[in-house]
Design a protein that fits this description.
The chain is an alpha+beta fold. The chain has five helices and 16 strands. The radius of gyration is 32 Å and the shape is rod-shaped.
Length: about 350
């Protein structure tokens, strides 16, 4: 029970980092990679190695956690499964894996807003392998002349993230594959039928269930809705408040002055209305400013948003702010000639609506 609780806590820590970063739409943070290398059983290192190649599809959930779907094939792979004869097939087996990957550098060292040049990821998952049998030696003992196995893969990814945009990754990926067996395994039956002596009851595939793989590959990270090829950090807006208090006997008089770090424009005979982060609701301070506009005036409204979040969302947020100001002014009898929603115009854009008197 303690182990399960620890695993849940570790996973929750990794997932919690998503609250600090943008780019979480379904089609964000996808990547595709290809790899190739060699494999050999851990029972007999002196046997010749077989080749392995595959393709990987990965979805990043946070800068720490990602999920990988992997397709892999083995070529001339008799080194891993010592039948006594080499397979006549070029492709001896095909595997599919569902893996979870943990970026150890981001987990323990914190995410710095962009991928590091070098990173290490831990990888583990469950898979399914189908072995193709070309000869007739197993026909009498094996239905369909093939063999299916569930297996588990564990490994590390040593990643080098290249380029200014970090769109490409070159990886070295060592791993160990653990294949499951059954008591009525057809390979064991064939060994026993052929009169081959078992070592302490371990025959054939039972002595070759642990496979080592070393592959190298290249991965391309698709561009996300935040304009980058990776998660970007949401920087909080700094707000500075100054409170001044004047004490007079016998009644205490409090004067509050709020100073906010925002970039404004000179709107001449108009007013500037400020909004809270991700809000389109008028504050009492904003309403007081709008009340200074004469009811017989005609105005034009321009709305903006700060640069956090996606472009489309900022456009809609600035329109909602324009609509809130328009509705309030029209209730007072002020004529609104037009509204313009600008969204976020660069890094200096802020949460402001300008009301210009024509």
């Amino acid at each position: 029970m303690k182990k399960i609780t620890l695993v849940i806590a570790m996973f929750a820590m990794a997932m919690a980092s998503s609250a600090q970063y943008t780019g979480h739409k379904f089609f964000d943070n996808w990547s595709i990679g290809v790899e190739g290398g060699v494999s050999s059983n851990l029972h007999d290192w002196d046997k010749p190695n077989g080749a392995v190649a595959g393709i990987n599809f990965t979805k990043g959930i946070t800068p720490v956690v990602s999920f990988e779907f992997q397709l892999q094939a083995g070529f001339n792979d008799d080194a891993n499964w010592n039948w006594g004869v080499r397979s006549k097939n070029v492709v001896d087996n095909a595997s599919v894996y569902a893996n979870t990957k943990i970026n150890l550098m981001n987990w323990f060292g914190g995410y710095k807003g962009a991928p590091r040049l070098f990173e290490i990821q831990a990888r583990g998952g469950v898979g399914y392998t189908r072995f193709f049998w070309p000869g007739s030696d197993f026909v009498d003992t094996q239905s369909g002349n093939d063999l299916n196995r569930c297996n588990f893969k564990f490994g590390l990814d040593f990643d080098f993230n290249l380029g200014e945009k970090k769109a490409w990754t070159i990886s070295l990926r060592p791993a160990v594959v653990l294949k499951t067996s059954r008591d009525n395994d057809p390979v064991k039956i064939w060994y026993e039928g052929a009169g081959i002596v078992c070592d302490n009851g371990v025959c054939g595939a039972y002595g070759h269930n642990a496979i080592a793989q070393v592959t190298a590959g290249v991965t391309y990270h698709f561009k996300t809705s935040n304009g980058q090829h990776y998660f970007t950090e949401v920087k909080p807006v700094e707000v500075t408040k100054v409170v001044e208090k004047t004490v007079e006997k016998p009644v205490e008089k409090v004067v509050e002055k709020v100073v906010e770090k925002v970039v404004t424009k000179n709107v001449g005979g108009g007013v500037t209305v400020e909004f809270a982060l991700n809000k389109a609701t008028l504050t009492n301070t904003a309403k007081a400013k709008l009340n200074t506009i004469d009811k017989s005036a005609t105005v034009v409204i321009d709305g903006y948003a700060s640069p956090e979040g996606a472009k489309a969302y900022n456009q809609k947020l600035s329109q909602r702010r324009c609509d809130a100001v328009k509705a309030y002014l029209e209730d007072r009898g002020v004529k609104v000639a037009g509204t313009n929603a600008h969204g976020a115009e660069g890094p200096e854009s802020q949460r402001i609506v300008y009301v210009t008197i024509k």
